[in-house]
Amino acid sequence: MKTSITGYPRIGGLRELKFASEKYFRGEIAVAELEAEAKKIRLYNLSLQKNSGLDFIPSNDFSFYDGVLDTAFLLGAVPKRYTELGLCVLDTYFAAARGYQGEKGDVKALAMKKWFNTNYHYIVPEIDDETEIKLSGTKPFDLFGEALGEGVKTKPVIVGAYTFLKLARYRGKKSAADFAEQTAAAYSELLGKLGELGAEWVQFDEPSLVMDMSAEDTALFCTLYKKILSAKGSVRVLAQTYFGDVRDVYKELSELGFDGIGLDFIEGKKTLGLVKANGFPKGKTLFAGVVNGKNIWRCNYEKAVGILDELKAYADDIVINTSCSLLHVPVTLKNESKLSQNVLKHFAFAEQKLDELGELKKITASEAPCKTAEFEANKALHSEERSGRNDEIRAKVSALTDSDFTRLPAFAEREKIQKERFALPLFPTTTIGSFPQTADVKSARKALRTGGLSAEDYESFIKRKIADCVALQEEIGLDVLVHGEYERNDMVEYFGECLDGFIFTEKAWVQSYGTRCVKPPVIWGDISRAKPMTVKWLVYAQSLTDKPMKGMLTGPVTILNWSFPREDITLKESTLQIALAIREEVLDLEAGGIKIIQVDEAALREKLPLRRADRREDYLDWAIPAFRFVHSGVRAETQIHTHMCYSEFADIIKDIDDMDADVITFEASRSDLTILDVLKENNFRTEVGPGVYDIHSPRVPSKAEIKTAISRMRERIPAEKLWVNPDCGLKTRAEKETVPSLKNLVAAAKEARNEDI
Ligand code: GLN
Ligand code: ZN
Question: Is the shortest distance between the CB of 260 and ligand 1 below 6 Å?
Answer without folding.
Answer: no
